[in-house]
Structure formats: C-alpha cells, structure tokens
C-alpha cells in the first residue's frame, strides 16, 4: 500500500468510502461536512492506494502549542484485514514525530473509538448523539 497526497481527482473515491461506512461508522448528515472539507481544507489530506484503488484517507493537521488533530480517517470495508489502519496510524505517528507534535486529538464515534485505544488514545469526553441520532461523539487524545 502507498500513502500519497490527496488530489481533487480522489474526491469521488473518498466519498464512496464514506458511503460504504454509513450509517455504521458515520452519520449520514456528516457527508456534507466531508464534501466541504475536501473542497476547502484538504491541503495535507492523504489517501491510501492499494492495487491502484483509493482504499483509505486521513489527515493530520497541526494546531497551536504543538498539538495536532487527526481528521476524517476513512477505511474501505473491502480493505479490512490488510493492516491498513495500523499503516495509517504509523504514518500519523511518523508525521507527528517529524513535526515534534506532543498531542494528537481525535474526534471519533462510539463504534470506532476502540481502534484508537489500541494505538494509545485516551477518552477525554463524550457527547451523546454528537454526530447525529444514535452516533455518539468521543473525543480522544494520544500523548507522544
């Protein structure tokens, strides 16, 4: 698998991955937020390529005080079992190290937070129905 910079031509593939993960991992109402993100804030976003297909996407965005935020991590269900999530997190940790980042902030759902716990994230707060009805928002941090 290769991890490369997002290009506007990847938008359809990224939205397709989002759609495949709805409503299990994302609330349908989040799709418009993702579209806005891809059109306005995707500088620094990355995609994962496997067999010439986009199978994942994510972005690590530096904030002030040497903190950063992991944004819009998406994994194609067809790529499960390939170690894609672990490769993404390794790339995130490598980027954070190069930037001398101290904390990675993550906003995820109640169905995905265990993945981030496996990579050292701790729960900071929870908002019931924070992403939409039945999709609870979990705020997490990884201290480096």
Helix/strand layout:
Layout: E1 2-5, H1 11-20, H2 31-40, E2 45-50, E3 53-62, E4 67-75, H3 84-98, E5 103-109, H4 113-118, E6 122-132, E7 135-143
Parallel strand pairs: 4-5
Antiparallel strand pairs: 1-2, 2-3, 3-4, 5-7, 6-7
Helix pairs in contact: 1-2
Structure, explained:
By secondary structure, the protein is α+β, with helices and mostly antiparallel strands. It has four helices and seven strands, in the order βααβββαβαββ. The mean pLDDT is 94.
Query: What's the N-to-C terminus distance?
Result: 25 Å
CATH topology term:
Aminopeptidase
Strand order of the largest sheet: 1-2-3-4-5-7-6
How many distinct helices? 4
Number of domain modules: 1
Radius of gyration: 14 Å
List keywords for this structure.
alpha+beta; Aminopeptidase; 28% helix; 4 helices; 144 residues
């Amino acid at each position: 698998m290769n991890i490369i910079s997002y290009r506007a031509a990847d938008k359809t593939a990224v939205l397709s991955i989002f759609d495949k993960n709805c409503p299990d991992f994302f609330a349908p109402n989040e799709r418009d937020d993702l579209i806005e993100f891809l059109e306005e804030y995707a500088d620094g976003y990355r995609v994962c390529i496997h067999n010439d297909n986009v199978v994942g996407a994510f972005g690590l965005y530096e904030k002030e005080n040497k903190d950063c935020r992991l944004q819009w991590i998406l994994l194609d269900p067809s790529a499960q079992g390939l170690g894609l999530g672990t490769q993404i997190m390794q790339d995130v940790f490598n980027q954070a190290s190069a930037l001398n980042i101290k904390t990675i902030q993550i906003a995820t759902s109640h169905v995905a937070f265990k993945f981030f716990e496996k990579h050292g994230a701790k729960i900071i707060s929870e908002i019931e129905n924070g992403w939409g009805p039945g999709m609870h928002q979990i705020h997490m941090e990884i201290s480096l």
